Amino acid sequence: MRIYVDADACPVVGIVEKIAKKYDLPVSLLCDTNHVIYSEYSEVKIIGAGVDAVDFALVNLCQKGDIVVTQDYGVAAMALGKGAFAIHQSGKWYTDNNIDGMLMQRHVSKKLRQSSGKNHIKGPKKRTNEDDERFEESFENLITSVKKS
Prior knowledge:
The protein has a single domain (3-148), classed as Rossmann fold, CATH 3.40.50. The protein has 5 helices and 6 strands, in the order βαββαβαββαα. It has helices spanning 13-22, 53-61, 73-81, 99-115, 129-148; strands at 3-6, 27-32, 43-47, 67-69, 85-87, 93-94. The protein has a 6-stranded mixed beta sheet, sandwiched between helices.
């Protein structure tokens, strides 16, 4: 089992590495040339800049039984299709039972944004300690669940 992180602007890299160390699991952080990351624990893979370049590289690398950390529903869906496990930075697990609904909601939201005259999109709310604690607990639960299976 290896952990792959869609690390461009990912706020949970430190938590992922902390838990991975605890279970002695290898981690690969993937980022594009605009978000260069350094790590003393993880392997860092810098992927050429380009639309979805990191996403496709991550999906190509992950294998059955690996864990993918991403906020991108499309990446999660492709990882699930390969037999990997996927988790959002909020701690929500992507599953075969919920991914279709999430992809549909993303599609509907995009259509609504395009149809409104407003193009200003508010950024995400500020991350809290509770968000980090929720992710950490959920991520560790995912690892233990995968190790049992």
